[in-house]
Amino acid sequence: MTIKEIQEEIIDEFAMFDDWMQRYEYMIELGKSLPLIEEKYKTDNNIIKGCQSKVWVHAEMNDDKVEFTADSDAIITKGIIAILIRVFDGQHPSAIIDADTDFIDQIGLKEHLSPTRANGLVSMIKQLKMYAIAYQTQLN
Fold first, then answer.
1. Residue 51 among the catalytic residues
2. DSSP string, 75-129
3. Alpha-carbon distance 9 to 5, whole Å?
4. The pTM is what?
5. Cα–Cα distance measured from residue 140 to residue 128, given in angstroms and rounded to the nearest whole number
6. How many CA atoms lie less than 13 Å away from 129 in the CB half-sphere?
7. From the candidates 6, 48, 51, 80, which is the catalytic residue?
8. How many CB atoms neighbour CB 15 within 10 A?
9. Per-residue pLDDT tens digits of the chain, which is 140 residues long
């Protein structure tokens, strides 16, 4: 699936819920299904700066696709990173770099987060795209 198709799928899923409590519960469920990062990657180098909670992200390149794993010590934050990884995992670096993240506004996520969590969300997106830029550079 393309990034756009995955984003559309997420928009449709969030549209099924009537209120934000249900959406938060769904995000928590997504966080629980996140493929966990190996303990050896839970290092200071893999912590996303700018997040209130601890969020670790590890990226690897396999067959010209970036594969991400992550974890967080907070359940909502873990749900947020799970959504982002679902969108970007297994995609070509150039697709990640070029992807817009308007779907976040479309599901209303940013407006329902505290300012510090919203800043953390921006930091997560930035870090995932930085990994993609680094891998794209290696391909060129």
1. yes
2. HHHHHHHHHHHHHHTTB-HHHHHH---HHHHHTTTGGGS-HHHHHHHHHHHHHHH
3. 6
4. 0.94
5. 19
6. 11
7. 51
8. 11
9. 999 999 999 999 999 998 999 999 999 999 998 888 999 999 999 999 887 899 999 999 999 999 999 999 999 999 999 999 999 999 999 999 999 999 999 999 888 888 888 889 999 999 999 999 999 998 87
